[in-house]
Amino acid sequence: MMDARGTCSLARPVFYTKDSRASWRYLGWIMGLAMLGLPPIVAASGPRASDTHVLHIDIRATALSGALRELARQCALQIARFSDDARDLAVGPLSGELTCTQALDRLLAGTGLAYRFLNDQTVAITQAGDSTAAKPPADTRATPDVSSTSPGIQAGQNSNRGEETMIHRGLLARLGAFFGFCTAAAGLACAQNAPTESAEPTTGLAEIIVTAQKRAESVQDVPIAITAISGADLAKLGIVESRSIEAAVPNMRWIANQGTNVSNVFIRGVGDISFHLNQVGAVGLYMDEISLNSPILSTFGMFDLQRVEVLRGPQNTIFGRNTTGGAVQFVSQKPVMDELSGRGAISAGNFGRFDVDGAINLPAGEHAAIRLALARFSLGNYLNNAFLDKQQGAYHRDAGRAQLLWKPTDSLDVLLNIHAGQSKGGFTGYKQIGLGTPADPAAVQCPANLKKAVPGNGCVDQTGFADSGNFSQVWDNGVDVLESKVRGASARLDWRLSAFTVTSLTAYEHSDGRRMEDSNGSPNYIFDFTQSSNANQWSEELRAASREDSAMRWIGGVYYFHESGHWTTLPYRANQALTNVTVPGQPVPATDWFAFIPFTDTHQKDEVYSGYGQLEFKLSERFRLTTGLRFTSEKKSGMVSNGIVTRTDAPVSPFQFVDANLLDSLLVGATEVPAGSALRLACPKPLPFTKCVAYTPFDIQNNELGGKVSLDYRVSSNTLTYLSASRGFKAGGISLGALDYVARGGSQVTPEYLWTFELGGKTELFDRTLRINAALFDNRWTNQQLFLVLNTPGTGANPVYTNVPKTASYGFEAEIDWAPTPDWYLKNSVGLLHSKVEEIGPELAASQGAVVGSQLIASPKVTWNGTLRRQWQAGPGRISLEGNWSYTGAQHFDLLNSPDQIEDSYWLFNASTGYQFGAKQQFEVSLWGKNLTGTQYCVQHINMSGVVFGNVAACVPNEARRFFGIALRGSF
């Protein structure tokens, strides 16, 4: 169904009360919250469907709410419930050969409710006396069906409808019309949930349906803090890559830039900034319920999505991998039976921006449907390399998905999914934050950094180089590789039995990538970095779930996961014995043979076996108790080949990508040293002229329990409160940091545990024109896993994967949706977060890696996101105006409060204006702008310290450009 913003969701009963009058004491509070922004725009839009076919309808005797949900599924309809007086009424059974409209009439007989079609796939349920009820849809193709003699028709229902015949257009004619239009209008197409019909605006916020608990439920009924973003809203916000969703979610940071193939996701301060590809994130990422274990799998452009769900807090009970921070679930659009439709979008802008995506839904006989979707997202060069006098930064990402839905019987659905994608581009360049002064390049800390550690503040690295403050200008020396590929397939089976539903989900995912960068971000050849990966994962989930109308709902299952990965990490550095890299104030030339190359080459197998279950007990009409438990056995095993190659015979250029094969050739004649040795001590001397290798096996086994318990209380039919406690954990793992093995012989981490306590509430007020969801939370870690820079005696600072004994965070978040009229819409979300280190332990104390009381990494104290929309009728179409803003507070990127590891707060502003037109408002042209203030900020700060090197920090810059463009959308 479509909410007042154009959000597409499945149907579900909305809890409604006739007594919707709010007291004046609430009014003042609500208005105060509303003043966080201004009133919004409503995008009236909806997907397409038809209902002229006679189907076999089979609905058991149940509550009206469950019956409507089941009818929506069987008829592929979206049912908008604007009235809920009949929430607890029993209806059915209903079985037989019926059109969907006939089934609606019979289900609503005697309930005092009526329905009307908002478009040919969206049906509004209203009170029978509502003046808007019983109006036929404007499109006669969507006016199915019931004769005046149909059983169950009563006054106030749609008994005056005559059966009409759908005019079926030929496949070639419709395809020709669509692509002809796209060509004439430069590819005008429609985004995921583009408008399809001119429908009478309706007041109120419709329901948002999520599958956070493996069931289709209203987000207002789930006792979890959830943000759901529909495909339509993704299009309106211009979100085409996963990292951008942080602009719509409170207390969330998605750390990635255009020059990386690794994402680091934080929710409520839970996360890690490791760039190594074997690190499983604290926040689980899922595509259609499939765990995306490799970080590469999450960085592709998002296309043809139904919605994105962000669940905050540990999600260990139902989701496939154990997580401590939460889960992000991407839900793709699925094939629809008996429907030929298509949609697409083209967006073009400055700096060579060109994005195009489209999808087509094809009927494939009586029992099957196919959906095909393709996308390309690209950007031209937008950076100026002042050292090489060239432009750089361009990239393109291509992706495609094909799905086949087969329904051999009314009780069995089979969904096959094949997908692939690739990304090619270049390293976008770091901005450097020097730690020395021009007069003293070897200084430990530049005084200007104590005031504000930003590029261009006059501080220099050990060579005397000082970066500029212009984020569109970079100075790297030409190392420029960034490539990744993914492909996969899945098969899902849903078998609906009389008492429960059985689901099987089998999936395969492959990813590989190459990355090479000039990590010191200067003209000098000091520190380059290469990373390659190849990973294959298989997973199988088998579960059973009770019927939705069961007195005690339950779900239980087993899960298996297997990943085989091969990762190579290789810093390519100047040899300090053969160059002047350690001589302050002197440049370091790029040469073909002055090379010091530490490395790790890792083969790892990760196997997970788990069983889980969740029960919901209805203690009374108002109280519900939910309990869930998951047992997981996880084993990580393999071999780390770690060593040092020091060459003086020019085997490779510093600008040549070194993969595992080339590394093997460089190791010919290397000295093998004991596993686990600190290479700086174990390798033959003199180290700069020798090469060595250690083969370090590992076998890590963890058996753990995670779970949750929550008690929710329905204060009224439209207000839910809940109290929950959840335990999450992450299994132990190993470090892939090459310098870690040089200085310390490598590092391992023990499991991380997190208890989260949450008190939340969800309510809808003023005839459901105002929705407020809020939560208080408290996080308590034991042995939090973090990638930190620690001091090692004899070598200085080095990157290490370690545990921090005790950390904590607590905070508040609220999401406010307000649609005071059909033409205004406002959304505000705010997150408040306080985090701290409570105990550092002897290792961190000795290595000066953390201080008690320090703010946790990537945990700003305040985040604020907002959207304001307004629309007007303009002739046959509608004009819309929209603004988006986000505020991110100051962040730390280490646990020492280091000045060069703190990023100040910043604002971002985006805006767009559009015109929707066409017989069903199915076309739209819009102008958009992103980062209108030209804000430049560091996405992340990196301590570049290392073995006998390091007087510089790096800023991972944002794009720092104002982007403008035009977007065209359409559908058939």
What are the key terms here?
22-stranded antiparallel barrel; mainly beta; 972 residues; five-stranded mixed β-sheet; 49 strands; 8% helix; 10 helices; globular
What is this structure, in a nutshell?
The chain has 972 residues and is mostly beta strands. A hairpin with a 3-residue loop joins β38 and β39.
Question: What does this entry look like structurally?
Answer:
- The chain is mainly beta.
- Helices cover 8% and strands 47% of the residues.
- The chain contains ten helices and 49 strands.
- The strands form eleven sheets. The protein has a 22-stranded antiparallel β-barrel. Strands 10-15-16-13-14 form a five-stranded mixed beta sheet. The chain has a three-stranded mixed beta sheet with strand order 3-7-6, with helices on one face.
- The chain starts with 23 loop residues before the first helix and ends with a strand.
Structural class: mainly beta
On the 0 to 100 scale, the average pLDDT is 81
Q: What is the 3D form?
A: globular
Number of helical runs?
Answer: 10
List the helices and strands and how they pair.
Blueprint: H1 24-34, E1 55-59, E2 62-63, H2 64-75, E3 78-81, E4 90-91, E5 94-98, H3 100-108, E6 113-117, E7 122-127, H4 171-184, E8 209-210, E9 217-218, E10 226-230, H5 231-236, E11 252-255, E12 264-267, E13 283-287, E14 290-291, E15 305-312, E16 326-332, E17 341-349, E18 354-363, E19 368-379, E20 383-385, E21 390-392, E22 395-409, E23 412-425, E24 431-434, H6 447-451, E25 473-474, E26 480-496, E27 500-518, E28 527-546, E29 553-573, E30 595-618, E31 623-647, H7 660-666, E32 671-672, H8 679-682, E33 692-716, E34 719-730, E35 733-734, H9 738-744, E36 748-749, E37 752-765, E38 770-792, E39 796-818, E40 824-839, H10 841-846, E41 862-874, E42 877-888, E43 891-892, E44 902-903, E45 906-917, E46 923-930, E47 938-943, E48 952-957, E49 963-971
Parallel strand pairs: 3-7, 13-16, 20-25, 32-33
Antiparallel strand pairs: 1-5, 2-4, 6-7, 8-9, 10-15, 11-12, 13-14, 15-16, 17-18, 17-49, 18-19, 19-22, 20-21, 22-23, 23-26, 24-48, 26-27, 27-28, 28-29, 29-30, 30-31, 31-33, 33-34, 34-37, 35-36, 37-38, 38-39, 39-40, 40-41, 41-42, 42-45, 43-44, 45-46, 46-49, 47-48
Helix pairs in contact: 2-3
